[in-house]
UniProtKB/TrEMBL annotation:
Superkingdom in the source lineage: Bacteria
A single GO molecular function term of this UniProt record: translation elongation factor activity
Name of this chain's protein: Transcription elongation factor GreAB
Organism name: Rhodoferax aquaticus
Gene Ontology terms describing biological process: regulation of DNA-templated transcription elongation
Assigned keywords, A-Z: Elongation factor, Protein biosynthesis
Length: 160
């Protein structure tokens, strides 16, 4: 599986999300500033609410821009068994029910599912608990995370 292709897919999806966020900012701003939404009394808050929404959408758009910058600068290295799993690794895990999952460890802001050929690849950020639990592990090692009261255990099958 090509990590560069996965990285390009992440950037494409982030670009789509940015476009949607920017459209939402424009729509909320237009609502907030439209002459029909000028408050006539203290209970007339549509314009104010739209302004808050526009601010939130602008923050969301900025977060996506930052994630895109991080992903553009990101250079995943080939797996080095002496270092174990690092940021940029493509990892195949198997759980106790023999269910396999492909994970691509990337910088923040890119958590999403991608399809590469016939494989589904879950992109997880470096801040995710599972990502942190995998760092430094090698093929054959066990990885576990605690989610609420449930302990999930996995085995590292392959790393690319």
């Amino acid at each position: 599986m090509d990590k560069f292709l996965l990285q390009q897919q992440v950037l494409e999806r982030l670009a789509e999300s940015l476009l949607q966020a920017e459209q939402a900012v424009r729509a909320a701003h237009e609502t907030a500033t439209h002459e029909e939404n000028i408050a006539e009394n203290k209970y007339d808050t549509l314009g104010l609410e739209a302004a808050y929404l526009a601010t939130g959408q602008a923050r969301r758009a900025e977060g996506i821009r930052q994630a895109m910058a991080n992903w553009r600068q990101f250079r995943p290295n080939p797996y080095d068994a002496s270092k174990g799993i690092q940021l940029g690794a493509l990892v195949c895990l198997v759980d106790s029910d023999d269910k396999q999952q492909q994970l691509f460890l990337g910088p923040g802001g890119g958590s999403m599912k991608l399809v590469c050929g016939a494989q589904v690849v879950q992109v997880i950020s470096s801040e995710a608990p599972l990502s942190r639990a995998m760092l430094g592990k090698c093929e054959g090692d066990e990885v576990w995370i605690q989610v609420a009261l449930i302990r999930q255990q996995f085995e590292v099958l392959r790393v690319y």
